[in-house]
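Encode chain A's predicted structure.
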Amino acid sequence: MHESIWSDLVEVEYSQGYLDVGGIKTRYIRTGTEDLPALIFLHGTSGHAEAYSRNMGAHGQHFDTYSIDMIGHGWTDFPDTTYEIPTYAEHVLRTLDVLGREKAHISGESLGGWVATYLAVHHPDRVDKVVLNTAGGWVANPEVMARIKVISNAAADDPSWETVKTRIEFLMYDKSMVHDDLVECRRRIFNRPGYSDVTRSILCLQEMEIRKRNLITKEQYGSISSPAMVLWTSHDPTATVAQGNEIASMIPGSEFVVMDKCGHWPQWENPDEFNRIHIDFLKS
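Encoded structure for chain A:
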């Protein structure tokens, strides 16, 4: 059976469009209506809004749900800027302004989880509940950082079928979850003129000195006042379950959940379980 992003969305009422966020053309996928609480999904490094295509329908029933391409990613503009965590956070804040939202639930995976953490620490007035899904920001593992740089640069420099597939397979426990449609979706993005150069810019967080100055401190985790859930997986390729639990232990009153037989994209590998856990937390 052919798997497709379209098959994830074919029964879903959704829209795709662009926002002018301070001059940055910002792409989004949206489900739900403006009378519902706002929810923003944030993808990981070199990712894009389709990371949440299997979650948009379920969440749109309860939330005004936006999955955005963060600055420098997907089909959003990639200006010449410093791609460190405050830059991403500022882009998300300005996106909320354009949407007319004072607050939103923020749910981020990997890099997106790092950005969500930063927002919860520095802008608690803009964050309702926060979900940190296999989030970056606490661990600096040189081997993992080097691996991400190698496979990301290889895919961006030569966006062939195999290099892009290898990059996405890194995210999955079950490699068969990487279907042709997902590979081609990202391959088209990596073929954008200038994308090889911006990939090197967004990989600055895989350089130890830059990463260290962006890491979230124990005191900052302890300052988070928004209700928080730390969602980890049994086979995350970037950090162990123990390290995920360590993050949760520093955030007052947070929930810690582990999804079995998933890698770095639990929302994709087991969408039914993810949607249930995620929606229950946001509605509780």
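Residues 5-141+217-283 form a domain with the Rossmann fold fold (CATH 3.40.50.1820).
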